[in-house]
Specification:
This protein is of the alpha+beta class. Helices cover 32% and strands 29% of the residues. It folds into 2 domains: 2-195 and 360-416, FAD/NAD(P)-binding domain (3-Layer(bba) Sandwich); 201-352, no CATH class. It is built from 14 helices and 22 strands. The two termini are 23 Å apart.
């Protein structure tokens, strides 16, 4: 029977950094990956460019992480954005800072990040076994003893002193993150908070969004309304799709939307197309433009106000004849135009599945983990790192930094243990 100091389940972001750190400290490390290669999900992050981390300070990170960001303070203090950048640079991957403090590899290739992490681990004498699925974690008196795996139809048992579960969540299951880690943790007595898609596009009622498919709006304000009350809002860019809406601000709001849908609520999306103008300022502009271009057809003046793709949709909703002259627009019609620009509303009917979710909300209950070490409070010498834990964050490199920091700390702690 093969014996190791540390066995890591999953060769993703958290698993590779944990393996490298444990190997660096002299441990004999085995990484078990059920897919055919390492970092499958890493390869598609940041649209294939890999948003490695963010240059923001820890205090700013905390504002973008849910539901219990302060639990990560020790992990962040131990290993943070400059540290992962340093490891990548030492393995030939330069980085650069882009809009919003987002850090990407200079090459714009996520494969370079994955390859660097594999090098980091392998140079520390870490063994990585592919196509090997962990079927069971073996314990005795709530103490880790080893794991049982299957590979090519054959069962294999390994002995080890520690196990780190780095299996990811349930988002993008085709990359291997299909919830295996939750099942393994549950069999050992851990509880798992409700698992839902996060950073995911949402579906809307009716044909308006599909008619606007492909249209991207910038500098708009999107707010979510529940039971007639504004519950959340974001400013920035969004995108219309064949099923509803997506884009940065929708993805950020989606965590809240999905949770409300899960509760049985019926959220509505209100888009303010002119957030820089209050009602009176917008009305003054509409009135001025209509007066100055009285002989023009309404359809033409709308080109001054909205993207061309949106004009026929607006005119249809407003029931205004496109050939109507501007000087024939009534004050009541002008009011309808203003209200629709300030409150372009959609009923949200659902969200896309885990197949399209960037991240998972929910996971291993944080109350069952010692965040000074990432060790389980339920089973001795069992550790967790990355998305399998009940943390999720906004886009911008925050989620990957959680994986780096918790993985590094787990790799360090299991050897010191």
């Amino acid at each position: 029977m093969d014996k190791y100091d540390v066995i890591i389940i999953g060769a993703g972001a958290a698993g590779l950094i944990a393996a490298g750190r444990a190997g660096e400290l002299g441990a004999k490390v085995l990484v078990l990956e059920k897919m055919e290669r390492a970092g499958r999900k890493l390869l598609i992050t940041g649209k294939g460019r890999c948003n490695v981390t963010n240059e923001a300070p820890i205090s700013e990170f905390m504002k973008h992480i849910f539901p219990n960001p302060r639990a990560l303070k020790h992990a962040f203090n131990n290993f943070f954005n400059k540290d992962i950048v340093s490891i990548l640079q030492s393995h030939g991957v330069g980085t650069e800072v882009e809009r919003g403090g987002r850090i990407f590899p200079v090459s714009d290739k996520s494969a370079d990040v994955v390859n660097a992490l594999v090098k980091y681990a392998c140079r520390k004498n870490v063994t990585i076994s592919y196509h090997e699925k962990v079927e069971e974690i073996v314990t005795e008196n709530q103490q880790i003893k080893g794991v049982i795996t299957s590979k090519n139809g054959q069962k294999h048992e390994y002995q080890c002193k520690s196990v780190i579960i780095c299996t990811g969540g349930k988002s993008y299951p085709a990359t291997g993150s299909d919830g295996d880690g939750y099942k393994l943790a549950k069999t050992l007595g851990h509880t798992v908070s409700t698992v839902l898609p996060a950073l995911v596009p949402v579906e809307t009622e009716g044909n308006v969004a599909p008619e606007l498919q492909g249209l991207s709006l910038k500098n708009v304000n999107a707010s979510i309304w529940i039971d007639g009350k504004k519950a959340n809002e974001e400013f920035g860019e969004m995108l219309f799709t064949h099923f509803g809406v997506s884009g940065p601000i929708i993805l950020t709001l989606s965590r809240f939307i999905v949770q409300e849908l899960h509760k049985g609520k019926k959220p509505e999306l209100s888009v303010d197309l002119k957030p820089a103008l209050d009602d009176q300022q917008l009305d003054n502009r509409l009135q001025r433009d209509l007066n100055e271009h009285g002989k023009k057809q309404v359809e033409n003046i709308f080109k001054e106000w909205l993207p061309s793709k949106m004009i026929p949709v607006f005119l249809s909703i407003l029931a205004i004849d496109s050939a109507k002259l501007c000087n024939q627009v009534t004050s009541a019609e002008r009011k309808k135009i203003r209200l629709l620009m300030k409150d372009f509303r959609f009923k949200i009917t659902g969200n896309r599945s885990f197949k399209e979710a960037i991240i998972t909300s929910g996971g291993i209950n944080t109350s069952e983990i010692d965040f000074k070490t990432m060790e389980s409070k339920v089973v001795k010498s069992l550790f967790f790192a990355g998305e399998v834990i009940d943390f999720d964050a906004d886009t911008g490199g925050y989620n990957l930094q959680i994986a780096w920091s918790t993985g590094y700390l787990a790799g360090e702690s299991c050897v010191k243990f």
